[in-house]
Amino acid sequence: MTDIRVLLVDDEPDIREIVDVSLGLDPDLKVRACASGADALVTAAQWSPSIILLDVMMPLMDGPTTLANLRKNPQTAQIPVVFLTARTQSDEIAQYISLGAQGVLSKPFDPMTLAASVRNYLPPSAGHHAA
Amino acid sequence: MSTKSIKTILLIEDNPGDVRLLREMFDDYGAHDIEMTQVDCMRAAEEYLAENTVDVILLDPGLPDARGLAAIRRIHAAAPRVALVVLTALDDESLAEQALQEGAQDYLVKGQIDGRGILRAVRYATERKRLERLKDEFVSTVSHELRTPLTSISGSLGLLMGKAAGNLPKSMARLLAIANTNSQRLVRLVDDILDIEKMEAGRVVFNFRRVEVRPLVVQAIEANRGFAEGYGVRIRLEEERGTAAVRADPDRLLQVVTNLLSNAIKFSPANNEVVVAIAKEADVIRIAVRDHGPGIPVDFRPLIFQKFAQADAGDARQKGGTGLGLSIVKQIVDRLSGEVSFSDAPGGGTIFHVLLPCWDHVANLAIDRDSKPDATRLLLCEDDLDTALTLREQLRQVGFATDFAYSVGEAVARAMATHYYAILVDIHLRDGDGVSLIVRLRALPQYRDTSIIVVSGDPSCGRDDLRSSKLNILDWLNKPVDFDRLVRLLAKPVAQDANRRPRILHVDEDDNVARALSEIGDVVTVNSIEAAQRALMAGDFDLAVLDVALAKGAGPDLLPELRDSKGNVIPVVVFSPKGANLAADAKVQAAVAELHTSIDSLVATVRDRLASRKNGVLREVV
After folding, report:
1. pLDDT tens, B267-300?
2. Per-residue b/e over B346-370, b at no fewer than 16 CB within 10 Å?
3. Nearest CA to CA, how far is B75 from chain A (Å)?
4. Residue A89: inside a domain, yes or no?
5. For residue A14, what is the domain's CATH number?
6. Residue B273's pLDDT is what?
7. Which of A3, A79, A121, B67 is at 20 to 30 A from B536, Cα to Cα?
8. What is the SS3 assignment for B446?
9. Residue B250 to residue B91: CA distance in whole angstroms
């Protein structure tokens, strides 16, 4: 397995598409997108992504709850999670990190550099596979 | 009166009498259905709020473990979403104002308001808090709601610009660029609005440290290079010699330089350059950003740092300005103890100047080298340089040398390196709080008994406040400092406090006990609790000795009420010559320091208690 699997969770179809295209600029990244936290839990367990990009504000199950549920399942507990969110006040960022997120990427993002930003949050081993 | 919206109140009050009074008041006005929980210290309040939620908090900020604005801040931090009403005996308008700024909804003075008034205030406070929450949520939601579509717009445009623009006809590529630039501008506008809202609310914390200016300016230039290219503008950094470091918050300084750069870029004609210069002057570092734009119209000059100020609204809009950039610059530079100004550039254009205190200058100033070498040396822990310099100048006139410490760490290091005659502490050091500094100083054996005077812009922690805590603070001076009073305090022999004979209040009629006690200290003998309270109001005592019969008669509630004129609870030793058994009365047991049945053991205990009272500071803090 040399590719890097990125699971994107966002309820906005437009944003899913743009993230998909943006990450697609990096040929090593394989992207799957989920529209809800519940879908994400299933997909994460089955597909074992290298990293999860998680929206914060989603109906039914929001980002922090999704993260908590991912951590509860041994199959998904170790997957790095990065919030991709428009809520990036410093206290909000501190809160996401305290929930166990690896990092926070802010919306709007620069589509041309998003892939590089995501790679920054990968554990070293994932980077080696890709290189 | 309708109090239906309020179901639960947390009352934080350590005076049992006030608690009782408040409960009675609430009952009198038909607020039986309000469930009121009472705690008597900050720790208990914080523990309660961690587990429970209430509709409103009533706080008397004179608690044994937290006082004044610090108490208000802690409660606000523990329950930021709950309405907070301050209920205090201290009638102080400026404290009231600061309490509201710290997040309280109202400030009520005991004795000035009846039960009906308190209930009404509580209800209004809850409503104001609800509206405040709505506003915060609104700002946060708007920012989120704007950013979500903006993410799609700027993302799509960014991808098109990055991948497809080269293949488009020139006119279409130009339209695409316009859309892209403007979506970026909207993003900045949303950021700026949030920023300025936070800055004005005082919610931005500054972390001061030594900052090398040049690398920071280079970083800002790099970040703006793409933006400049969009306008056909080059950015050039003039070479300078030597290093230049300032005392600043690097993130905020970066924001200042970035805003000035983007401003200069926007107002530069194409094919021109923006020139950044860094210059070290006597005590300051000057960062100058020069553009070759049209200059600032004369009648607009006084308005330039105001919010949403635009020289020519149409023009500014064409330039992609938000009208907030310079206002943010001004607010930040003010907080950095600097100055921002502008001037006409020779040959056209404008230069913006930012002057910041030079690090070497600030560091050099810390040691007072100008006073006489044999002058008595003081340490002033103060992070506002101007305040510190003014005080040093005044103190020099009366023969003191004053060293500065700008942070808690610096203060401890300096105090360990030099023995200071007295230490002045600003309670609001930006990178740590004064109280914890005093705790650390008192833990050093050489500063156990040194005079420590608090200098504070926060009048809440006035005379009754910190002095009554265990840190043995000599006095609390509000800013601006009453200099005569400070000099009087400093003139007192330092050891006086530690070596004076203890004053003992003896509440009994037994002359033998009085004689025995007079060997230890100055004894005032009275024969009733009432007389004892009068004596306490007239003078300060270190300890009270109480006959068991009187102790029982006083009732368990009164015992803890034996306080000196500063409001400190004084230790009570109960003497029981007939060996009466007090153990059954648990409340009395809890209130008294110790129970004694022989004069010898009483005298020994009194000695012990007085000694431990003097050294109590150390035991408390270690």
Report:
1. 899 999 999 999 988 888 999 999 999 888 888 8
2. eeebbbbbbbbbbbbbbeebbebee
3. 18
4. yes
5. 3.40.50.2300
6. 93
7. B67
8. helix
9. 41
Which residue in B144, B145, B148, B193 has the most chain A C-beta atoms within 10 A of its own C-beta, making it the best mutation to test that interface? Answer: B148
Residue B548 has pLDDT above 80, yes or no: no
- Contact with chain B for residue A111, Cβ under 8 A: yes
DSSP-derived letter for residue B65 is: T
**pLDDT per position as a tens digit, B390-423:** 888 888 888 888 999 888 888 888 888 788 889 9
Right CATH for B500-621 from 3.10.129.10, 3.40.50.2300, 2.60.40.10, 3.30.465.10? 3.40.50.2300
Residue A109 is assigned to a structural domain of this protein:
yes
Beta-sheet strands, E only, within B474-599: 475-478, 503-507, 522-526, 543-547, 572-575, 594-596
User: Between the ranges A2-6, A71-75, A100-104, where is the mean pLDDT highest?
Assistant: A71-75
**Do B8-133 and B209-354 come out as alike in CATH topology?**
no
Question: For residue B281, what are its two tokens?
Answer: 């002057």
Spell out the residues 6+ positions from residue B259 whose beta carbon is closer than 8 angstroms to its own. B325, B326, B328, B329
Structurally, what CATH architecture does the domain formed by B366-498 represent? 3-Layer(aba) Sandwich (3.40)
How many domains does chain A fold into?
Answer: 1
Q: Which CATH class is domain B209-354?
A: alpha beta
Average confidence (pLDDT) over A62-77:
93
In this prediction the pTM is 0.48
A–B interface: beta-carbon pairs under 8 A = 53
Identity of the residue in B143, B151, B159 whose CB atom sits nearest the CB atom of A21: B159
Say whether pLDDT at B223 is over 70. yes
Contact B147 A108 (CB under 8 A): yes
Q: How far apart are CA B331 and CA B329, in angstroms?
A: 6
Q: Is residue A128 part of a domain?
A: no
Over the stretch B82-105, which tens digit does the pLDDT of each residue have? 999 999 888 888 888 888 877 799
Report domain extents, chain B. Answer: 8-133, 141-200, 209-354, 366-498, 500-621
Q: What interface predicted TM-score (ipTM) does this complex get?
A: 0.81
Which residue range forms the structural domain that includes residue A71?
4-119
pLDDT tens digits for range B291-335: 999 888 888 888 888 777 666 555 544 555 667 889 889 888 988
Task: Using the predicted structure, report yes or no on whether residue B618 has a pLDDT greater than 50.
Answer: no
Is residue A130 in a domain?
no
Over residues B424-430, the mean pLDDT reads 78
Domain B8-133 indexed as CATH 3.40.50.2300:
yes
User: Strands across the sheet with A4-9, in order?
Assistant: A29-34, A4-9, A51-54, A81-85, A103-106
Beta bridge partners of B9: B36, B56
Which residue in A has a C-alpha nearest to residue B186's C-alpha?
Answer: A108
